[in-house]
């Protein structure tokens, strides 16, 4: 009985701990309760296990994740989670994906086994293909997308899983003022049929947009507040009289204008990547934790408010922040390795507004202890109830 009592005491301690943890996470959930997505890039050798990442994501109430591949470990870790997944086929797959039987096999191996447990809603076929100098890759893009879509149709998955690709903002030759947005002349031959395909299957046009790049190239011309969503005068598009208080919205509307110029106003634009680095090389002006916190914090607030852009006020912006973690193996300037909201150890890189900080990532070991204790509590209460019923 002594033993049972002490177990009960520790049990009630854990119950109150549990309630405490739950009420904290409830608070966080309320604060972070918005429909933003996040890019879960894995070009690193030090990232936490997908099961740990699943705990972190849950505490953030992030509802959408974008992967650059179809990592089965991640898809399994998020089974039964309610998180919606965009998965990716890298550029190296495009040639094979123009072959119907290879496309079908890929879906059978990478989508179907996880599909019943994990919400896979979209496949991006290729990433920033028009930013490569590879004409063959550009020629393969649309056939690969069509073939993957056809394979989804024949497997009966096309209603749940859509097909698209993600573009660099550099596919535009003109983006200012937003109403005169236009695609690069040399890409029109590829983009016109691509847009027709998007309209036909009703899939979104994805763009990776980084006001940071524009700012860092012109820090003396572009007001920092305008790119960070801070109070500022903004700009007015002389053709439409629409007022822009931030660069990202201007970029999104420039993409809508470019698409419209090619005869389509039936395609939704979504932001597959945007973000701000917390660190960079000395010449990468603006890459600081303070700016990154303002950019991402202010952006999340706007997502929470379900804002649309000036040209599409009724279409809430749909955004995947880049990225969940700093990725130490990314090539290029230092900024490339510093886009994460988190360090690989689960600590936030900076505190983003909303409630001031992102929660620490609970370690998997701790949550195992917690679940063992919950289990013990249940067993103990059961024994206790048995004891009582005997009396
Ligand atoms: C979590 O976020 C979703 C949007 O993704 C929102 O609908 C839901 O209300 C949020 N949950 C809470 C408890 O805030
Ligand atoms: C493309 O298909 C060939 C032949 O089936 C295979 O050997 C190759 O590994 C595939 N390429 C990729 C990137 O999967
Ligand atoms: C494409 O070619 C241009 C000019 O040759 C070069 O400056 C650029 O870095 C290349 N881009 C890629 C992604 O290889």
TrEMBL record:
GO terms for biological process: carbohydrate metabolic process. The keyword Lipid biosynthesis does not apply. One of its GO terms (molecular function) is glucan endo-1,3-beta-D-glucosidase activity. It catalyses: Hydrolysis of (1->3)-beta-D-glucosidic linkages in (1->3)-beta-D-glucans. Pfam families: Glyco_hydro_17 (PF00332). Keywords: Glycosidase, Hydrolase, Membrane, Signal, Transmembrane, Transmembrane helix. Its EC number is 3.2.1.39. It is an enzyme of class 3 (hydrolase). Belongs to the glycosyl hydrolase 17 family. This is glucan endo-1,3-beta-D-glucosidase. It comes from Phaseolus coccineus.
């Amino acid at each position: 009985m002594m033993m049972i009592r002490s177990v009960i005491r520790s049990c009630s301690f854990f119950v109150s701990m549990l309630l405490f943890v739950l009420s904290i996470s409830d608070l966080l959930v309320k604060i972070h309760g918005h429909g933003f997505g996040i890019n879960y890039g894995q070009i690193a050798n030090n990232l936490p296990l997908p099961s740990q990442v699943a705990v972190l994501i849950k505490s953030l109430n992030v509802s959408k994740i974008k992967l650059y591949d179809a990592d089965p470990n991640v898809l399994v870790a998020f089974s039964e989670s309610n998180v919606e997944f965009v998965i990716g086929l890298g550029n190296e797959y495009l040639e094979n994906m123009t072959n119907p039987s290879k496309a079908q096999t890929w879906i059978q191996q990478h989508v179907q086994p996880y599909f019943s447990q994990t919400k896979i809603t979209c496949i991006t076929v290729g990433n920033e293909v028009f930013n490569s100098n590879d004409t063959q890759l550009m020629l393969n893009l649309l056939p690969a997308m069509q073939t993957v879509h056809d394979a989804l149709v024949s497997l009966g998955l096309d209603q749940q899983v859509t097909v698209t690709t993600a573009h660099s903002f550099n596919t535009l030759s003109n983006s200012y003022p937003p109403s005169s947005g236009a695609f690069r002349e040399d890409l029109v031959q590829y983009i016109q049929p691509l847009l027709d395909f998007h309209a036909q299957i009703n899939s979104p046009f994805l763009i990776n947009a980084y006001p940071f790049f524009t700012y860092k190239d012109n820090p003396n011309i572009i007001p920092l507040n305008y790119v960070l969503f801070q109070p500022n005068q903004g700009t007015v598009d002389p053709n439409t009289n629409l007022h822009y208080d931030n660069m990202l919205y201007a970029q999104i509307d420039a993409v809508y204008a470019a698409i419209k110029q090619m005869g389509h106003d039936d395609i939704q634009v979504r932001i597959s990547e945007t973000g701000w680095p917390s660190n960079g090389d000395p010449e990468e002006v603006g890459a600081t934790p303070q700016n990154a916190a303002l950019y991402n914090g202010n952006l999340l607030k706007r997502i929470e408010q379900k804002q649309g852009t000036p040209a599409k006020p009724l279409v809430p912006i749909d955004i995947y922040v880049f990225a969940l973690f700093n990725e130490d193996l990314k090539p290029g300037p230092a900024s490339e390795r510093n886009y994460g909201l988190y360090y690989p150890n689960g600590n936030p890189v900076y505190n983003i507004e909303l409630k001031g900080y992102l929660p620490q990532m609970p370690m998997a070991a701790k949550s195992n202890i917690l679940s063992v204790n919950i289990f013990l509590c249940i067993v103990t209460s059961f024994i206790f109830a048995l004891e009582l019923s005997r009396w």
